[in-house]
Input
Amino acid sequence: MKSWQRYAGLFFLVVAAIVIQQSIWVLRLFDHGQPGSGFMPFGLGVILAILALGLIATQRGPEERRIPFWEPRAWLHPLLAVIITAVYIVVFDDIGAITSVVVLVTGWLLFVERKSVVVAAGTGVLTGLVVYLVFDRLLQTPFPRGILF
Amino acid sequence: MFDIVGLWQGFQIAFSPVNLLWCFIGSVLGTAVGVLPGLGPAATIALLLPISMKMGSPVTAIILMSGIFYGAMYGGSTTSILLNIPGEAASVVTCIDGYQMAKKGRAGPALGVAAIGSFVAGTFGVLGMTVMAPPLAEAALKFGPPEYFSLTVLGLLLATYLTGESPLKGLIMAIMGLVLGSVGLDPLSGAVRFDFGIADLQSNIDFVTIAMGLFGVGEILISLESSEAASILTTTIKNVFPTMADLARSGWAMVRGSVIGFAVGILPGGGAVLSSLISYAVEKKASKHPEEFGHGAIEGVAGPEAANNAAASSSFIPLLTLGIPGNASTAMIFAALLIHGITPGPFLLKEHADVFWGVVASMYIGNVILVVLNLPLVGMWAQLLRVPYAFMAPLIMVLTLVGVYSVNNSVFDIWVMLVMGIFGYLARKLKFDLGPLLLAFVLGPIMERSLRQALLMSHGGFGIFFTRPISGALMATAILFVLYNLWAARKKQRGGQATAA
Output
């Protein structure tokens, strides 16, 4: 776990570097002698860099007890969920909000939860119907129209 | 002593059929999310933010959200007692003795004492708020930009140090929150910051998007890692109304828990978790039978449950009077108020007295609703634990996706939410507390505006934060707090090295 903490420290160090670079080169640290739009971000970048270095420094040395970041195959379900959600967002505008909800729930129950096709599709259609009634009809959310609605 | 007319008007608002209905819905939803492990009150409030925008009245929206927040404190004990899994973070301590009581066939009295303690403390907390909030708001009217900057610095530091395991990680999260809060339009000059040529980033990132990503999507992804289903302790829930002997043992624990919870809840970051931990330690010290703690002592359930409810109520005091949210849930309520065009702070009581007193009055009503829901109907809530999470996870995901789209009708917001969800998932796995990030995101604009206005006032001199009495006192407290914690950490490290040698 220590190595992952060090990677996290490196990530925050990169973020700090970007914030500092933008504050100096893109924004203004001072404007007419007064703090400008880059003033506070610059300070935040410097503090973040110090804290990130502190995190890396405290995570040096060998681990007393090796704890895996993921238990065996524990990453699979979250990854599948992220992929299915990404697919939902990609097709959202093209096939419409309600149809993409049906696709998301059906896909999730099929691939993440390993439910049968009937259960997955049934739950998907039912969820799509509820979303249609609550958000589209009742709350009148301007969803993109797609292939079904 | 307090504004009785305001409170009376508050009750008139809270007793209107619409508000009464939403208070009931909030209490039911709160109890449900408290009972269900994995979905906390902050996530639920985040999920409902888009729906709250459709509500015409801000009072109604805040009544709903407050109900969810304090309702979750009631419901959290059920899972702790029956499953030995905290329904939400504040009920961790209740597991210790609550589950032991359930194993001995005393689940009923444990659940009953938890509900009664919650009611006593919740009502005490609201009473305290009724009395304390108006004078505090009056005092806060004297605050200028330097005082507000010092207050936000102190608030963020306290929240960072008191909530998580590692202050270093908490501080990193707080800075990340401030950085994210600065994306988009600069509040003073109007310059665009950190847009990297992406048009959608030129307006500020929406709070709902961040909150739903971190607390909605992040929690779903974490919950998908464990496939093991928890089993409800096979015990019959009977005698939920405690005996006189049980009440005699737990009565003072409830009183002490109420006072501790109220005091700790006012502190930013203090909140429900810390107060329940302190209450448990106090009860163990005060008990004539400390050896029973850990083996089913009823005071070990009554005290912490009272403390977390009192803290939930008193955490509204800094939010409504100073405009400083102390935890993730009150940060969501802060955002909801802003969405409805109301700025929480000292002027709230003057300019939107109906909102303030309506919400306070609804809390009295909500506490009564909750004790009725939780005492006789506790068996029904226990049944909720049988709903398979396999179906709940995609449904919650749909609610977050559709909800976040409905705020700005923007697909880009859904992408941002997914990215924040992945960030929240990884941060949780690495034991980073996300509360400070959200608090800092909310406080960031206030902090920056105050800092720059104060520096304008002083022509660039930082002395203004130390020379004005209130600001100086707040800054001195912040510095002393950091120095004390550094000293304590150093001492602990040296102690550890000496032991190892």
